[in-house]
Amino acid sequence: MSTPELVATCWTSAGDVAPLDVPEVSPFPIEERVRAIADAGWVGIGLGQDDLRHVRDTIGFAALRSLIDDVGLRHVEVELASGWWRSDLKWRGTWELLLDASTQLKAEFIKIGAAIETPLDDITPLVEPLRRLADEAAAVGARVALEPLPFGLVGTIPKGAELIRAVAHPAAGLLVDYWHVFRADTTLPELVASLDAGIVFGVELSDAATDISGTLFEDTIHNRRLIGRGDQDVEGFIRAMREVGFDGPWGVEIISAEHRQRSLVDALTAAHDSTLETFARAES
After folding, report:
1. Distance CA 26, CA 117 (A)
2. Number of domains the chain is built from
3. Which keywords label this protein (predicted)?
4. How many C-beta atoms lie closer than 10 Å to residue 192's C-beta?
5. Distance CA 106, CA 67 (A)
6. Which one of 33, 49, 77, 92 has the lowest number of neighbouring Cβ atoms within 10 Å?
7. Where in the sequence is the domain holding 103, given as residue range(s)?
8. Residue 96, CB half-sphere, CA atoms under 13 Å: how many?
């Protein structure tokens, strides 16, 4: 097997900042982050909405895209849009920021979520809103990748696949994060049966202890481990996504109190190298 292409998703390189911090802005200058990601062997970068606002208001998206090109990164992801199913327009500001960032940075997709709420049994109310969102994205050459969350309206990957197939739009697909596979108690055979390569826009690798610490949300933002350093079957997940037909690049999402205390170089090196070691075991 060839060496997998790995993307440092936004939290993997963000440093001492966590989801729902106000603001969610990395303490590392964006230029330092981009160069460190490239130097550590990654092929791509992910950036969250507050970092993107900071970039827009300082060096600008054009300068960031130029830097990304200069260091040789080939893959960009932007996140996170939520609230898109609501009738109020409070979510539009972030959505329009992400559309602009996606266009100027030539992002592969815009990651979207579906709130911290009780999962829906019937996803029908989300079909038309998501189709409209995909229409808006397609109009500027962008795509949206929905990330199901066990504590969100779309609670499992199979339910997310059901929604994407109902939307039936080429600009709408799934982001399959392994954390939200095992924490939703979705088995790997169930995962494979629910997916096909055409609806999977991105995959993220995570690892963790068997037991949940605190709430599901607290666990997901404080306790992820380096790939292959936890108790989850990451190797089996890699093989399962290969069976589905996914051919990368693979995002790596390390969100934890421990990871936030690492230096930028140490964080990126540890996350990259541990992931490659896991791929070697998965493909041996």
Report:
1. 27
2. 1
3. Carbohydrate metabolism, Isomerase
4. 15
5. 13
6. 92
7. 6-282
8. 5
Note whether residue 47 is domain-resident: yes
Element spanning 124, H or E: helix 124-139
pLDDT at 1: 57
% of the chain surpassing 70 pLDDT: 100
For the record, the structure tokens of 240 come out as: 């399962």
Contacts of 86 (CB under 8 A, 6+ apart): none
Distances (CA, A) of 228 to 177, 186, 235, 251, 260: 15, 19, 8, 15, 18
Length of the chain: 284
Distance between CA atoms of residues 34 and 13, nearest Å: 9
The CATH number given to whatever domain includes residue 145 is 3.20.20.150
What average pLDDT does the chain have?
97
Angle (CA) 121 124 125, round 5°:
100
Place of tokens 């993307």: 7
d(CA 282, CA 248): 15
Residue with tokens 């969102």: 133
In a domain, 271, yes or no: yes
Would you say residue 1 lies in a domain? no
* CA 101, chain centre distance (Å): 16
Tracing tokens 């979520």 back to the chain, one arrives at 113
Q: Which residue has the higher pLDDT, 219 or 117?
A: 219
For residue 138, pLDDT beyond 80? yes
**DSSP state for residue 245 in the 8-state scheme:** T
